[in-house]
Structure formats: C-alpha cells, structure tokens
Design goal:
Blueprint lengths: L4 H10 L4 E5 L2 E4 H16 L7 E5 L4 H12 L3 E5 L5 H11 L4 E3 L4 H7 L5 E3 H4 L6 H10 L5 E7 L7 E6 H14 L7 E4 L7 H12 L2 E4 L8 H10 L4 E5 H9 L2 H4 L7 E5 L5 H10 L4 E6 L9 E4 L14 E2 L3 E6 L5 E2 L6 E7 L5 E2 L3 H7 E3 L9 E11 L5 E6 L3 E4 L2 E4 H9 L4 E9 L4 E8 L3 H9 L10 E4 L13 H7 L5 H13 L1
Parallel strand pairs: 1-10, 3-4, 3-5, 5-6, 9-10, 9-11, 11-12, 12-13, 26-27
Antiparallel strand pairs: 1-2, 7-8, 8-19, 13-14, 14-15, 16-17, 16-18, 18-21, 20-21, 21-22, 23-24, 25-26
Length: 518
C-alpha cells in the first residue's frame, strides 16, 4: 500500500452505506465520502500540479474532509487552516505556503476573499458538484509514491514564523494500522473527535476511522465550554473512543461534566499533548470504571505518537505517568549532552525518534529542518535520519520512558538550573490542587505559578515551601478557574506570562511569603 486513498477505497467498497462522518449539520456514508472527494479531486486536478499545497479554510466536519481527500485525489496535499485563528496568523501561514488557491465554504468565503484574490477562492460546495473523472484520478494515483506529502500542519516557530510540518503517506500508512490494532479500534466504534483538524491529534481520529470503517463523530468546538451539552453529545451518539488532548479532559472534569452525566459507552480514553494531572485522571477513571486509559506521546514531527503506556488502575504512579514504550516501526531513544546514546535507567537525555513516522521536514524552511532532522550522531555507516524532539526523558529499571521536561523549559534561577515541570508536578500533587503551569519572567528573573483546584493560594504555598527549596519557589501563586489554552488545546504559557504580575491581594501575600522564605 502506497497511498492513503487505498484505505478510503477499500472501506468504501466494503461498507458503502455505513455512516462515515457525523457532524452538526448531518452525516455521510463511506461511499459518499469517496464520491465527493473524487469530484473535488477532479476539479482541483484541472487547476493544480501534483504535490502542490492546498490550504483548506473551514470548520472541522464532513466538508473539510471532502476537501482534504479531494486534494489528495488531485495528487496534492492539504493544509488545514482554522478559521478561528487571527488573520495575521493565517497570512503568515499562507506566505510560507505560496499556494496558488484556497478551498473554503460559503460560511468562510468573506475571510478567504480577504486572504486571496477572489479568482483563487474555491468553494467546496461547488467542487463536490463537479463530474468525477475516475480514469484521470487513477492515473494521478498510479504516478504517486508513498513519500509524497499527504498533509502539512503548522506549529509555532521560535523565529516568530509558523513552521509547516509536512507528513508523507508512508508515515500515516505505517502508524495508523499499528495504532488501530493496539487499541482494538474497529468498524463498530464511534470515535468522538475533539481536536481541531489543524492539530495532529485529529489525524488519529480521521485515519483510524478511514482504515477500519469506524464512524467519526465530529464534536462541535463550542461544546467544550458547555460540559453538560458535551456529555449529552457523547451519550446521544454512543461514542466509544476518545482520543483527546489532556486539556480537553481536564476541562470536563474541572467543570463537573462527569457529575452531570457519564458517557458509559466510552471504552477507550487515549490522551496526549501534556502531562495528565493525577486528580483529573482519577476522576475520569472513577467515572468510567470499565474503560481503558492510555498515555500517548509524540510531537507532530513524528506523525502523531511514538510511545504509549496503558494505565494500570492499581498503580499509584508515585513517580508520575510513564510515556511507555515505542509503537511498532518507531525507534525512540535518548542522547546525552555529548550525543551518546543512553541505555541505562535514571539518566536524563534528549528524546530522539527514528523510523517511518518522521516528517519530510518543515515546508519552505530548509535551515530549520536541518537543525532538528539530523543524521544519527552515533551512526557513520549509512544514512539514518532522526528527529531531535527537544524533550527530556529518562528510563526506569523496566525500560519505560518518562518525560522530564523541555530543554527550553530548563531555566537558571538564583544560580540553579531548574525544570519548570518539577515545580508543576509538586504543586499538582498537593491536596486541593489539580493542574499547574509555571512560567519564568526572564527579564525580572521571577517564577510564577498558576493552578486550578479548590485550595487557597496562601495555604498551598505554605505546603509547597516544605517540599521545594527556596530557589524553586514561585514568586506568585494564583488560582484560576481554568487554564488558558492555545488554538491547539495546550496550556497557553504566553498568556500566563503576560498576566504573571502581583495584581491582587493573594498574589501580594504570596510574594511577601516568598520574601520571608528567602
């Protein structure tokens, strides 16, 4: 198998009338998904050369998938653009892509027309009405290889310009069957999609459904601020699999969604993106006593995930949740500061990944690509490309990998090197605290911590001062109803840093306590 369209063709032939995708406006069958993508692909192929990026600007749902697969039918690759992003951000992405056209829907035509000349704005409603040309599409598919790009997802860049991670057909064809097999996903499952389509968590939802014939239930974005309505959606659609970001699960449990109603059809909860706070994990496991839970790890650059750990209900996880062990066909290892491979337990190194899941690189950014997609420094015998994640990890005695923070979250404060995640774990482990994020104001050399939970900040700080040395104590500690999130559903550290000032009484009290501790 060399092309992701083969998944779609096989499933559409096997289950033509079965529901493929459910969204707020309706649903489609596997035959319809294939048919509409062929129509869109025929129309796009008349305008575009193979391997051209196709930006798709619309909300997640059936029509976005018609556009995605239509782009692939045309021999091109798709680039999801989230319409909730600021226009300036969208313009940055489009400047990197240099794409000749954009696909959108009627609802987002005005925005697309501001970003592109009107002649280059194509409506998906029109594209799916085009007469399909199966012979033309078959020739295009025959000419493609498994190393052709399938999609490009943009992540934040340290230079201020978003980075477009380009993933090939080969990478998804390698990962998805292993993922579906490992978690027993099949045609009778209903996958509850949480992630925006421009976030790589959604790749697991989309392609495990396409490969197995499971139904994809696209959850409207607004429901994640309405926990009761969200639980109603999961129950009404009898959702069986949740592959969600940690922040989305925490939002539900923090806002007492599980107290309102339990989605007891759910049999798999697979989470990733950030460290799962123990209190939130316990709440979900209590609500779903028969469901399986798993901690997944992997940056966008390695195609979704490279390790997983199945949660053992009887395990207290006093050392934290492990990232686990590698998925099939992925090599995950640690390099020390001298680029030597670490094999023993309890030594921290940078997590590196090799195998078929590696991205092709960053779009239109060869220098950035060369910095992190490198030749394995221990192999001088043949080409062995690896990705340096920038994450730190260690092994335990059983060979399980543990996350130990980011290289760029390691700071120097009061003469000491500190991992911000160590402070976060210490706060989150205290009674009355659920989730914590710590940021560092480099200009003023101050640590600031934010947490969710019921504990008062002054009482929490007193407990923290008995656990951490003074140089690791945050200058301010503020309770939030919920953590601010980025568009990708991760904790927004920049927003926290912007508000990290002694602006209220509780923060001033903590600052005074900090001075006394010092």
């Amino acid at each position: 198998m060399k092309n992701i369209l083969e998944f779609l063709q096989i499933t559409a032939a096997r289950l033509p009338d079965k529901t493929a995708v459910i969204d707020e406006a309706g649903q489609c069958s596997w035959h319809e998904l294939l048919q509409y993508s062929q129509s869109a692909g025929t129309a796009l192929a008349a305008r575009l050369a193979p391997r051209t990026p196709v930006p798709v600007l619309m909300e997640k749902g059936r029509h976005a998938l018609y556009a995605f697969f239509g782009a692939v039918q045309a021999g091109c690759f798709y680039v999801p653009l989230n319409p909730v992003l600021p226009e300036a951000r969208l313009r940055q992405v489009l400047a990197v892509l240099e794409a000749p056209l954009i696909v959108t829907d009627r609802a987002h035509y005005p925005l697309a027309a501001r970003l592109f000349p009107e002649s280059a704005v194509l409506l998906i409603e029109d594209l799916i009405q085009a007469p399909p040309a199966p012979a033309v599409l078959a020739c295009i598919q025959e000419d493609m290889t498994d190393t052709d790009p399938l999609y490009c997802l943009f992540t934040s860049g340290s230079t201020g310009t978003p980075k477009g991670v380009v993933i090939s057909h080969r990478s998804v064809l390698s990962f998805i069957p292993a993922f579906s097999r490992q978690f027993g996903i099949g045609e009778n499952d209903i996958i509850g999609n949480q992630a925006p389509f421009d976030f790589d968590v959604s790749v697991k939802d989309i392609y495990s459904a396409v490969q197995t014939g499971a139904a994809l239930a696209v959850i409207p974005r607004r429901l994640f601020s309405q926990p009761a309505a969200l639980m109603d959606f999961l129950c009404a659609h009898r959702v069986t699999v949740l592959t969600w970001a940690v922040s989305a699960l925490c939002l539900v449990s923090a806002l007492h969604g599980l107290d309102y109603r339990t989605p007891d059809s759910v049999r798999r909860v697979l989470f990733s993106g950030e460290v799962m706070p123990p209190a939130h994990l316990r709440r979900w496991m209590q609500a779903l006593p028969h469901a399986e839970f798993a901690n997944l790890y992997g940056p966008t650059e390695i195609t979704c995930n490279c390790t997983c750990h199945r949660i053992e209900r009887e395990n207290e996880y006093t050392a934290g949740l492990p990232l686990g062990k590698a998925f099939p066909n992925a090599r995950v290892f640690l390099l020390d500061g001298a680029d030597r491979e670490i094999t023993g337990p309890d030594e921290t190194g940078e997590i590196c990944v090799g195998g078929a899941g590696l991205a092709l690189g960053y779009y239109n950014a060869p220098e950035q690509t060369a910095r992190v997609f490198i030749q394995h420094p221990g192999n001088r015998r043949y080409v062995e490309r690896i990705y340096r994640t920038g994450d730190l990890g260690r092994y335990d005695a059983q060979g399980n990998l543990y996350f130990c923070g980011r290289k760029d979250f390691q700071i120097k404060h009061m003469g000491h090197r500190i991992e911000l995640e160590e402070i976060e774990r210490a706060v989150a482990a205290l009674p009355g605290a659920a989730q914590c994020c710590c940021v560092f104001d480099e200009g003023k050399s101050r640590l600031h911590a934010f947490y969710t939970g019921t504990a008062e900040s002054a009482a929490l700080y007193e407990q923290l001062s008995r656990i951490l040395p003074v140089f690791m104590l945050p200058r301010t500690l503020e309770r939030l109803e919920q953590m601010p999130l980025t568009a990708n559903g991760k904790t927004d550290r920049r927003r926290l840093l912007a508000i990290a000032r002694p602006a209220n009484k509780s923060q001033v009290e903590i600052s005074d306590l900090w001075e006394r501790q010092k």
